[in-house]
């Protein structure tokens, strides 16, 4: 009999605020972090969701003396600190980091690899700062990393390797990444419109998000969400284009719901990936319909936060949980007219709702997909 | 234009890593996509980069790529008409 | 209890399967070694040539074990230390200079370490649990624990585990199949 595993605390650092409360308030007001910015020198501006660097530094100085950190590391530390302050770290506490590119901007004009670009070094630096005792685990599975990091924590605790886990996810906007997505013609020419008829690509975003996961409850939790099921299945189709029949996502959702012992009509809300590329959103519509989930209220949060890559899965899971706690569904921002071939129940305005079971999904380069089912307890 | 066509065939083999394909195997009017070369969506994007890098042609609308990359013949003609390098 | 049924190691221009050298080359250059291995072992999979070096390494090691058998229930759990830094470095070079600024999508797509796992899934058409971890050193215990959890929860019948580390000419693959 597997132990029950819960998320009992969380925090995030985004352009909409440096804690969840500020983020939720902004989201309720329909605010978005997406603005037009110059990211690459001598290049046109892009719509991105970027954290104000000055505000970040101001906030950082309030809590930390040591300044020997990259911008991304500051984002990570700020996100983690409240959780570390509230929950103790033992010899059996895991530290899991989800990121796709870490400190990749350190590579610019270098002839050799600076130490900071190694993801394990990044993780160790953060772990050492907070005095974690176990070796950090880095999940680097493209854009599904944030969702997978939750399932890795759950599975490793159930395997008896750890008692609890701090999971942190983050990625930063960089010339490296934006130029790459641009070469894929994947970047939208305006604020992104997931599932919309006129969608034409992604907006990149940046954020860090953290959760605390445990199998031991102490009755003092402000909230708890049980991680009921998880799965991460590959499409086995193409390294950059999703399966046209949504095979991997369908299988991930099916497996996660099977493990959770939850049926389609029990799911109250889906936080989908919805990047606003033609192919991703269409694929999701197909996969969700195959699972008979087309009537479940669904949104993508990319219109608020842009696509935060390794952070997105965790950040969006946190906002989903916050939605559940506040009994409020928020719209899939920038959606106006249906633009996928199958039905989806896309949320178009703030609405009250009883949310007990959440399905969170993600998909990414390499044909990967991930799904988790959470239960508000 | 014969030189350009040959040049294109060589470049395509190199840039798209078509190790097992010989230049002679690529006929001028054969479809590049949907034919025997097994080219995919990433290859199409790479050809857009090739147009820019080697011939100075920036495609205003990347979707035009489908028309231009129909065959070596079509591609060569387009380059002849639009190259700035 | 779990059994390790096949082990493939690739390093120093040698491919070793279950303690037998099945291919070796004089060349010290990974790229040439990989090409020679591909030809000699008659892998017949043209997409191989489009892969980056990390994917070629992971692919070669996995091919030796997976062969043409049915692996529709084989999960893939891989890890390394350098993530995709080998390709990241190459990609960065293509955007360092404003005068010679030509980012390549074919290179960019490989700037994620999990792509190598995707390549294996695609070749064998296996739609199974996939994971990629970045660890400071090869931690067989961690990979095995993670794999065991997948097996015990019934999400797969076998798990192909791999440490596939590559940065420029320094590389090592240690890939093995775990079954119940």
Structure write-up:
The complex is a heterotrimer of chains A (377), B (85) and C (180). Helices cover 31% and strands 21% of the residues of chain A. Chain A is built from 10 helices and 16 strands. In chain A, strand 2 (34-37) and strand 3 (46-49) form a beta hairpin. The radius of gyration of chain A is 19 Å and the shape is globular. The mean pLDDT of chain A is 97. The mean pLDDT of chain B is 93. Chain B is globular, with a radius of gyration of 12 Å. In chain B, helix 1 (2-15) packs across helix 4 (72-82). Chain B has a single domain (1-84), classed as ACP-like (Non-ribosomal Peptide Synthetase Peptidyl Carrier Protein, Chain A, Orthogonal Bundle), CATH 1.10.1200.10. With 85 residues, chain B is mostly helical. The two termini of chain B are 15 Å apart. Helix content of chain B is 52%, strand content 0%. The radius of gyration of chain C is 16 Å and the shape is globular. Chain C has helices at 30-40, 53-66, 85-96, 105-108, 115-124, 140-152, and strands at residues 3-11, 14-17, 20-24, 74-80, 130-134, 158-167, 170-179. In chain C, helix 1 (30-40) runs parallel beside helix 2 and helix 2 packs parallel to helix 5 (115-124). In chain C, a hairpin with a 2-residue loop joins strand 1 (3-11) and strand 2 (14-17). Chain C is built from 6 helices and 7 strands. By secondary structure, chain C is α/β, with parallel strands linked by helices. Chains B and C meet through helix 2 of B and loops of C. Strand 5 (137-139) of chain A pairs antiparallel with strand 5 of chain C, so a sheet runs across the interface.
Instruction: Classify the beta-strand content of chain A into a percent band.
Output: 15-25%
Q: Cα-atom Rg of chain C, whole angstroms?
A: 16 Å
Helix percentage range of chain A: 25-40%
How far apart the termini of chain C lie comes to 6 Å
> β content of chain C, as a range?
25-35%
């Amino acid at each position: 009999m597997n132990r029950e595993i819960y998320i009992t605390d969380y925090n995030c650092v985004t352009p909409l605020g440096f804690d969840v409360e500020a983020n939720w308030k902004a989201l309720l007001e329909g605010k978005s972090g997406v603005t037009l910015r110059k990211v690459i020198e001598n290049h046109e501006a892009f719509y991105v969701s970027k954290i104000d660097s000055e505000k970040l530094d101001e906030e950082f100085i309030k809590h930390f003396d040591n300044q020997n950190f990259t911008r991304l590391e500051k984002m990570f530390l700020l996100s983690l600190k409240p959780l570390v302050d509230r929950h103790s770290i033992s010899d059996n506490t895991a530290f899991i980091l989800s990121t796709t590119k870490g400190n990749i901007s350190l590579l610019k004009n270098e002839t050799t690899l600076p130490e900071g670009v190694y993801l394990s070094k990044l993780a160790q630096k953060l772990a050492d700062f907070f005095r974690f005792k176990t070796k950090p685990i880095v999940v680097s599975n493209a854009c599904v990393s944030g969702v997978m990091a939750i399932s890795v924590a759950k599975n490793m605790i159930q395997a008896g390797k750890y008692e609890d886990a701090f999971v942190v996810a983050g990625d930063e906007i960089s010339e490296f990444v934006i130029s790459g997505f641009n070469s894929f013609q994947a970047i939208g020419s305006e604020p992104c419109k997931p599932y919309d008829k006129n969608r034409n690509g992604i907006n990149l975003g940046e954020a860090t998000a953290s959760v605390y996961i445990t199998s031991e409850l102490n009755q003092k939790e402000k909230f708890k969400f049980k991680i009921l099921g998880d799965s991460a299945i590959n499409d086995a189709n193409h390294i950059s284009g999703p399966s046209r029949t949504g095979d991997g996502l369908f299988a991930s959702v099916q497996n996660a719901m099977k493990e959770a012992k939850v049926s389609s009509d029990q799911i109250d809300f889906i936080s989908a990936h919805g990047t606003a590329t033609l192919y991703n959103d269409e694929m999701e519509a197909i996969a969700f319909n195959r699972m008979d989930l087309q009537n479940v209220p669904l949104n993508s949060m990319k219109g608020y936060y842009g696509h935060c890559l390794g952070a997105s899965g965790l950040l969006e899971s946190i906002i989903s949980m916050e939605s559940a706690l506040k009994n409020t569904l928020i719209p899939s921002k920038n959606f106006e007219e249906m633009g996928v071939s199958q039905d989806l129940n896309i949320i178009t305005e703030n609405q009250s709702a009883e949310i007990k079971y959440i399905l969170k999904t993600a998909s990414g380069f390499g044909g990967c997909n991930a799904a988790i089912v959470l239960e508000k307890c | 234009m014969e030189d350009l066509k040959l040049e294109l065939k060589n470049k395509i083999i190199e840039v798209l890593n078509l190790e097992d394909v010989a230049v002679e195997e690529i006929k001028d009017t054969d479809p590049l996509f949907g034919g025997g070369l097994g080219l995919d969506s990433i290859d199409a994007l790479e050809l857009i980069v090739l147009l820019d890098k080697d011939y100075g042609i920036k495609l205003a609308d990347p979707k035009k790529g489908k028309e231009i990359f129909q065959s070596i013949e079509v591609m060569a003609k387009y380059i002849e008409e639009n190259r700035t390098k | 209890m779990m059994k390790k049924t096949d082990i493939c190691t690739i390093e120093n221009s040698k491919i070793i399967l279950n303690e037998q050298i099945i291919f070796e080359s004089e060349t010290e250059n990974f790229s040439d070694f990989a090409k020679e291995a591909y030809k000699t072992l008659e892998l017949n999979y043209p997409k191989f040539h489009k892969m980056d070096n990390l994917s070629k390494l992971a692919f070669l090691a996995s091919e030796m074990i997976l062969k043409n058998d049915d692996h529709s229930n084989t999960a893939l759990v891989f890890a390394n230390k350098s993530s995709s830094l080998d390709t990241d470095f190459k990609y960065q070079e293509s955007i360092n200079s404003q005068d010679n600024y030509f980012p390549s999508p074919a290179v960019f797509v490989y700037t994620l370490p999990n792509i190598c796992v995707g390549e294996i899934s695609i070749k064998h058409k296996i739609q199974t649990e996939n994971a990629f971890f970045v660890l400071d050193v090869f931690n067989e215990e961690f990979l095995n624990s993670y794999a065991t959890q997948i097996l015990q929860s019934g999400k797969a019948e076998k798990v192909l585990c791999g440490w596939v580390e590559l940065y420029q000419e320094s590389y090592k693959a240690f890939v093995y199949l775990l079954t119940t």
